[in-house]
Design a protein that fits this description.
Chain lengths: ~550, ~190
């Protein structure tokens, strides 16, 4: 296989910035359509032989994610307080992006997710809005993603799912002890458990072998290509065309525009921190829900004094958060949940907003175990467990194989005051302004998490847990689902891109990633990020062929 | 923002650059003096006195009463390597913590020569006096990692920590994985 290599002075057809969940799809779709594509990726190009089961490296230190030592992040709750150093957000920083180290949950949106404003009405203090597309616009692209990447699941098993045109390409993964107990308990409670849709191969698929259940999915790169990251699925297809060059260790600092307000290319630091300018006809920004907004804000020019594609002032606003709480239970027998994929069963019974609850929001609940040995002993035990000594040792020794947890995945309301901006003083190690996150939770989001946590405790009790503990209701974690900040919409005064990711202000600039989300649905954004990427690529390809770009 | 779950661990550890982590792993193969299993015989950063106190505390945090504990896992060697490499910014905290320890020992047990010379009950009394300090939280985190992190960082020797919690370090498993999926009824399937 000869992979393409372009000179920076070559004007390529498409320059994709970010090789993650979206950028990988974009690379394949555009290159297979016949276009010449360069993909710039901040992080390195790693492969399964580079990965290992090293808990310290990948779950505690930033093995595959942004490293705050070189790219600091500051955080504050509101504009009124000073921002302090805090790794408030985390993203996959390598070829394949977050699709390499994610847990691999692969949920499609429900029909309602695209029109919650119409269905629920206004929520005070938030900017709840309908999407400019409906489920049926995206369904063909969800299906395309599932078949291209390799998704396991059981269609029809979730009575709340939107209609599908095809079943999942692969059957669900084998059920674990957590799934058996969860399924039985939730059925007895009148709920509707179903097998988790996962980006993990339950059977061999497209030359990749089936998962062998090693258990190291969340936070880890798969050592055998069974996790359906873009790194092992679509990116090799893109390179095989001979028209796509993946350029790792390439950190973009500015997208340049000409006097006509069209983008001409991107200026980036190469692996030797030398500045390089890559020319292109079209830029497709797929850097994620935080980094895309950052790069637009960095790309100020005479035509765009507030940042590229930001005449509305909306770039960076409406950042939504990765919300959900963990409840844990101790069981009599050894469940050995550290083996195999983290999740095998879940429910969507509490997914929809219900005005009778008195607040907006909803969520899914999955049965899982996402601790590894040291992390469990340090952060997985009940709050009343001893912290040292023989009883501490006995507790983590007994609990490790007998603990099952339930995690909620809940709505995060879009609020204009929750933002990504450039920190005025803190710089990264390249001298660029650090990302500054301003985020405070909407009261309805807190109410939703609290209400669902009560349901989690009820389910654990029904499952037969002999002891139940978990997150306090005000727990607040680093966000790994980066959504909002370049909203899609039809009104250029209130949104950044149209439904195909095309910037309202710049005809040859597309922004396609989690930043486009109008609402958060119930977390698990990867399937929708990728469906949006397939849909946008399809449109871009047709426009380019018609000479409209 | 409460530091909980993973963030809580991150808060207790210095946030290292990946280059330093790679350096720490390479040290395993480059130790100047090593025994037949490749374990270092000498410390890279700690002096013998500090190592003795830390080893004594580690043996109380994860004791060996019911099987191998922090002592057999070589947790103090893990601590040494972290301070020599990716957690070097915690050195000052350790220095201050050891001074605080020494002062507390001298106050509680004025006739004792050093921490290593204390009985187990006396060591536990010193720990109870320290357990709410930031230093103790860092030490506890490092000792747990020295018992349960990958052996390549110098601790968890012969995988004693993993064996104790019954974590089976295999690359592949076949279902059933646990008791409940092995014993599920036909209806549950």
């Amino acid at each position: 296989m000869t992979t393409a290599a372009f000179h920076p002075s070559d004007e390529v057809d498409f320059l994709v910035i970010g090789a993650g969940a979206s950028g990988g799809v974009m690379a394949k779709e555009l290159a297979t359509a016949g276009f010449r594509v360069v993909v710039l990726e901040q992080g390195p190009y790693l492969h399964e032989s580079d990965y290992s089961h090293d808990e310290l490296k990948y779950t505690i230190l930033p093995g595959l994610t942004n490293d705050p030592k070189v790219q600091p992040i500051t955080y504050r709750k509101s504009e009124r307080e000073p921002a302090k150093l805090n790794k408030a957000i985390e993203y996959g920083r390598q070829v394949g992006g977050g699709s390499v180290h994610f847990t691999a949950n692969y949920w499609c949106f429900h029909k309602s997710d695209f029109q919650e404003r119409s269905l629920f009405g206004d929520v005070a203090g938030a900017s709840l809005a309908d999407w400019p597309i409906r489920y049926q616009d995206l369904e063909p692209f969800y299906t395309k993603a599932e078949y291209d990447l390799g998704i396991s699941g059981l269609s029809g098993a979730n009575p709340f799912e939107a209609p599908r045109s095809k079943p999942y390409p692969l059957p669900p993964m084998p059920v674990k002890s957590s799934g058996v107990l969860f399924e039985s308990a939730t059925r007895r409670m009148g709920l509707h458990p179903f097998p988790a849709p996962l980006a993990v191969l339950s059977q061999p698929y497209k030359g990749r072998a089936a998962c062998v259940h090693c258990g190291f999915c969340e936070s880890f790169g798969c050592e055998m290509q069974a996790k359906s990251s873009t790194l092992v699925s679509v990116i090799p297809d893109a390179e095989a065309t001979g028209r796509c060059e993946i350029r790792p260790n390439s950190y973009v600092r500015k997208i340049e525009v000409n006097a006509h307000g069209k983008v001409t290319g991107a200026l980036y630091f190469d692996q030797n921190r030398k500045e390089v300018f890559q020319r292109t006809k079209v830029v497709v920004l797929c850097a994620n829900g935080v980094e895309s907004a950052k790069l637009l804000l960095l790309s100020k020019s005479n035509q765009f004094p507030n940042g590229l594609a930001n005449s509305s002032g909306m770039v960076g606003t409406h950042l939504m958060w990765d919300l959900g709480l963990l409840a844990e239970g101790l069981f009599e027998h050894q469940a050995n949940e550290y083996k195999s994929v983290q999740v095998t069963r879940l429910i969507h019974d509490y997914y929809e907003s219900d005005p009778h609850r008195g607040f907006y929001g909803g969520g899914g609940i999955d049965a899982r175990f996402d601790f590894y040995p040291a992390g469990f002993a340090l952060a997985g035990l009940p709050p009343d467990a001893p912290k040292w000594g023989l009883e501490f040792k006995k507790t983590f020794g007994h609990y490790f194989t007998r603990t099952i947890s339930l995690l909620s995945h809940t709505s995060s309301l879009p609020m204009e005051s929750n933002t990504v901006t450039l920190d005025p003083t803190v710089k990264d190690s390249w001298g660029l302004p650090a990302v500054r996150i301003t985020y405070a939770q909407h009261p309805d989001d807190a109410a939703t998490m609290k209400w669902i946590l009560q349901r989690q405790h009820e389910i654990l009790a029904t499952m037969g847990a002999t002891k139940i503990w978990g997150d306090p209701v005000d727990a607040f974690y680093t966000s790994r689902h980066l959504m909002g900040t370049c909203r899609m919409g039809t009104n250029p005064a209130r949104s950044v891109v149209n439904s195909f990711g095309r910037a309202h202000d710049v005809p040859n600039l597309f922004i396609v990633d989690g930043s486009n989300f109008v609402t958060s649905a119930r977390q698990q954004p990867t399937a929708t990020i990728q469906a949006l990427a397939y849909r946008a690529a399809d449109n871009m390809s047709r426009m380019a062929k018609a000479g409209e770009l | 923002m409460p530091l909980t779950r993973r963030e809580w661990i991150l808060g207790s550890l210095g946030v290292a650059a990946m280059q330093q982590v790679l350096h720490a792993q390479q040290h395993a193969g480059h130790a100047a003096k090593a025994d037949a299993d490749g374990h270092p015989l000498a410390f890279e950063y700690l002096d013998v006195g500090a190592a003795g106190i830390l080893a004594a505390f580690a043996s109380e945090i994860i004791p060996s009463d019911d099987g191998p504990g922090a002592t057999e896992a070589g947790a103090v060697y893990f601590i040494d390597r972290t301070l020599a490499t990716f957690d070097s910014e915690k050195r000052e905290q350790y220095k201050a913590g050891l001074l605080q320890t020494e002062a507390l020992r001298a106050k509680l047990f004025p006739n004792s020569p050093n921490v290593e010379g204390l009985s187990r009950e006396q060591r536990q009394a010193v720990i109870r006096g320290l357990e709410s300090s930031e230093f103790f939280e860092v030490l506890r985190t490092h000792v747990v990692l020295g018992f349960l992190a990958n052996p390549e960082y110098g601790g968890n020797r012969q995988k004693v920590g993993w064996k104790y919690i019954e974590f089976d370090d295999q690359m592949a498993f076949d279902p059933p994985f646990g008791y409940y999926d092995a014993h599920q009824s036909k209806e549950a399937k």
